[in-house]
Amino acid sequence: MTDVKNILLVGVGGQGTILASSILSSGLITAGYDVKMSEIHGMSQRGGSVSTQVRFGKKVFSPIIGKGEADVLVAFEQMEGLRYLGHLRPEGKIVVNDYQIPSAPILMGACDYPSHIIEEIISHADAAVIKAGDIARNLGNPKCMNVVLFGALVKAMGLMHIDWEQAIRDNVKPKTIDVNIRAYHAGLEA
């Protein structure tokens, strides 16, 4: 039995997946955990898939999470959640953003955005569906959707004992600290 926990964050370029992973890693390191993080950008600047893997525990030897090994999967976009569902361990949890970003083929009319993705995810995993885009817009900054999802992740992992507000302060631009702290608390409540 290992004390290492595995978190996989997936989304589309520009959604702030890597920033959320940096906040997570920063807070975990400050709390005394050994942390390894790996990121895959792909064609992220052109709206492609982005994934980050964060592993933490007493001693972590590798940053890589294999298929079926993620304790928690955080999907910043519906289709990415479905794409990475196989990485979740059978008893794992998924926090999925009820948000769609059409890919280039969908935008060009070559195909349609798949329907019933959320229902498919719920039928295969312990899922928390968050309308992070709506929450972020209500806070006045749609770009803080990633920190709303981060707050939901903290709640799903039971990591509320860590000083996440300081980790947020350490990782976001000074002018966005307040809205990001509000986004974190909104994510906890969601």
TrEMBL record:
Keywords: Oxidoreductase, Pyruvate. Gene3D superfamilies: Pyruvate-ferredoxin oxidoreductase, PFOR, domain III (3.40.920.10). GO terms for molecular function: oxidoreductase activity, acting on the aldehyde or oxo group of donors. Transmembrane segments: none annotated. Residues 13-189 form the Pyruvate/ketoisovalerate oxidoreductase catalytic domain. This is Indolepyruvate ferredoxin oxidoreductase beta subunit. It comes from Megasphaera paucivorans. The lineage of its organism: Bacteria, Bacillati, Bacillota, Negativicutes, Veillonellales.
